[in-house]
Amino acid sequence: MAIKVAVNGALGNMGREVLKAVYNERDLQLVAATDIKGDGSDAGTAVGLGKIGIPTGNNLKEALAGARPDVVVDFTSPYSVLENIEIIMAAKARPVVGTSGITEADLEKIGAWSRQHGVAALIAPNFAVGAVLMMQFAALAARYLPSAEIIDLHHDKKIDSPSGTAIKAAEMISKARGTVIRQTGDEMEKLAGARGARLDDIPIHSVRLPGLMAHHEIIFGGLGQTLSIRHDSHNRSSFIPGVILAIKEIMSLKGVVYGLENILKQP
C-alpha cells in the first residue's frame, strides 16, 4: 500500500521539488499540497506537472483533516515550522521536516508531542546524503585534529545563520573530540564577529551571496597540516533522495529522530 503524503510549503522552491518527486514516486501517493500562498489552484499546474486533481490550499489543519496523510513533508519557514509540526502531529501524521531553525528547546517540545500523539517525527538539517557523510567524516577527523572551523555558504535568500547543517556539524565535532580547544594567545577582533559565531569554541562563518546554493566546508588544523572536508549542493535536486528515504523510513520509526544519518544503512 502506498504511503499517503502531504507537502506543506508546496509552492516554495524546495516544496516544488518535493511535490514533483512525491508525485512521481511509485510507492508514494500525493494526497495534499498546502502553502501560505495557496489559492485553490491545481498543485500540478503550479509546478509544471499538469493537472493532477489536488488543489493547493492555505489551511494546513483543514487539509490534513480532509486528506488524512501518513506523512507530511514541511519545507516552510523558521517562524512557522514549530506550529506546523504541532498541527501535523495532532492530526496523527508524521512530520518530515527540512525547515531550518529547529532548536534544542524545540526538539524537546516535538518529543512531548510525539509521546502525546503516538507518532514519530524526523528533523534533518540537511537531506543531501553527501552533506550527511561530510558531517560523519568530520566527526572522525575531530578525534585526531580537534581544532576546526566551519564555513557555511548559502544563497542570499536564506533567512537563518548559521545553517542547521553548520550547527549540527559543530555539535558532532564537539562531541567527537571530547574537549574544548581554545585559541592560544590573546585574540583581538578589530571588528566584532570577525572570528565568527562560536559553538563550543568552534568558529562558524556564514556567507550569504547570490549565485550560491548550499555549501559547507570544515577545515581542521594540526601540527604542520590542514584537512578540508567540503560538500556542495549545486541545486535542490540534491536533497530529494534523502527526503524520499525519510518518508519511507519514518513509517517504522518511533519518537523524534534528528539527522538523516540515523536512518542511513550502516556498514
Overview of the structural elements:
With 267 residues, this protein is α/β, with parallel strands linked by helices. The protein has helices at 13-24, 43-46, 60-67, 81-90, 104-117, 129-142, 164-177, 240-249; strands at 3-8, 28-34, 56-57, 71-74, 94-97, 121-123, 147-154, 197-199, 202-208, 214-222, 225-233, 256-258. It has 2 domains: 3-123 and 236-263, Rossmann fold (3-Layer(aba) Sandwich), CATH 3.40.50.720; 129-233, Dihydrodipicolinate Reductase, domain 2, CATH 3.30.360.10. It contains 8 helices and 12 strands. The protein starts with a strand and ends in a 9-residue tail after the last strand. The model has no long low-confidence stretch (mean pLDDT 93).
Strand-helix topology:
Layout: E1 3-8, H1 13-24, E2 28-34, H2 43-46, E3 56-57, H3 60-67, E4 71-74, H4 81-90, E5 94-97, H5 104-117, E6 121-123, H6 129-142, E7 147-154, H7 164-177, E8 197-199, E9 202-208, E10 214-222, E11 225-233, H8 240-249, E12 256-258
Parallel strand pairs: 1-2, 1-4, 2-3, 4-5, 5-6, 6-12, 7-9
Antiparallel strand pairs: 7-10, 8-9, 10-11
Taking the sheet with the most strands, its summary is:
7 strands, parallel
Annotated CATH homologous superfamily of the largest domain? NAD(P)-binding Rossmann-like Domain
The overall strand count is: 12
CA-atom Rg in angstroms: 20 Å
CATH topology of the largest domain: Rossmann fold
Alpha plus pi helix count? 8
Shape: elongated
Write down the domain tally: 2
Give the integer mean of the pLDDT values. 93
Strand order of the largest sheet: 3-2-1-4-5-6-12
Q: State the name of the first-level CATH class of the largest domain.
A: Alpha Beta
Can you give the helix content as a percent range? Answer: 25-40%
